[in-house]
Records
---
Amino acid sequence: MADKPKYMAVQGAALIVAVALTVIGVLGFIPGITSGIDRLTWAGQQSGALLFGMFLVSVLLNVVHIVVGVAGFAGARSYAAARAYLLGGGLIYLGLWLYGLLVERGSNAHVIPLNGADNWLHAGIGAVMVLLAVTLAGQHDPTKRRSRVRRAASH
């Protein structure tokens, strides 16, 4: 009988997403990679820092990316947690996308600096995370598969 894989595909996907989001968050603090780093603000629309010269960032947004990324390292430990991480994180990023689209720029409610590139990035990240959570769910949790096999064998 073949050995069961140590990690399920959903766990690997959660780990890849976790690394990517953590790296994105950290890069938002590095001069050269982030232009206008001297104009990086804690929050609000006044931040003038651009990650890769394209994505408007602030300390708050960088921290959100890092926190969601680090949560993925914990989530990747089990099948169920990895699925929950991808689904929950995907919904957070889709929420950021909607926030960027619906909240009027310049209003006091706009505490996270977002531009069109940010909105599309958040939509893409959110959609990919939700898609991974849903499609990789077809690879059933091995801990539950074993219990079904044991029940069938005992009858």
---
Amino acid sequence: MPEVNVEINGRRYRMACEEGQQQHLIGLAKRFNDQVEGLKGAVGEIGDNRLTVMAGIAVLDELAEAERRIRALEEQVGELTRAGQEIATEYETLEQRFAERLAAAAARLESVADTLDAAAPLPPS
């Protein structure tokens, strides 16, 4: 299992990860370190453990907000899907009614043509 070295709050940590995930882990560690450094700048030196806990909670808060937004978007997708299905059903119904009316009109035209042919046959050419 590959290992990478990351730096959080000025300290280096060796971490194992799955093959091919090295850069991803390094990126995550950098983002977490940025969170720690941002808190350190906002609240000052408050101790490594407390700072790490605060940064972890801040990251989880961001995650919770992202999960809430994902749920809201999933609900919107569901609503749009249902609306699309309703429109498709309505379209099919209208298309069927139009086809029936067109067929009825064609039958009437055939009937009129038959009546005209019977009443006044065309002269031979």
---
Amino acid sequence: MTMSLELQIEQLRAELRNTVDPAERRQIDAELQLAQAELIIALAEQDGEVDTEPPF
């Protein structure tokens, strides 16, 4: 799972570098931030730093 997120992040970074339209840059940047957050959570779950069970 993390490999696909890492690949997605690299692709989004490449798109962001090549985009000149401000609206498209904002959209790609938002997608990039979301993918980076998902990667952080996935890595934390793998390391056992985050409990994936619901709190109830």
